[in-house]
Amino acid sequence: MEPTEGAPNGQRMDDSGGRSFGQRVDRIGGTAQEAWTRTRDAVTDIKATLNLEERVERNPYGMMAAAIGVGYVLGGGIFSPLTARILGLGMRLSLRLAALPFIKEELMGIAETISNGSSEESGSRTRKPRQTQTTNKGK
pTM for the full model? Predict the structure, then answer.
């Protein structure tokens, strides 16, 4: 950086425009207060949008689980061995549960084919159907 003209002994002039230290502190304080006010307003808007108090009243355990999950993620637990195990178990269970309807359809199709095949074979043989006797005792 080159020295600015007009500065004594080749020193740089302050970029503050000649303001005193107190004025700069006041300006920084005002900026910080403005940032705090904006942040507080943003948090209030988010709380109103999400309606957190009502959600906690309706479902306290679910909100507690959500808070624990968010804390776990923000605390750095997302890349831990425990997370890898939990995700692996979840994937295995979800794949098994997703495959169940397909397996059920296939088994039902096989059973239907077998029952249709056996009823066609039994239909070709003449067989008397069983008759059950009903008695009306007491009438």
Answer: 0.36
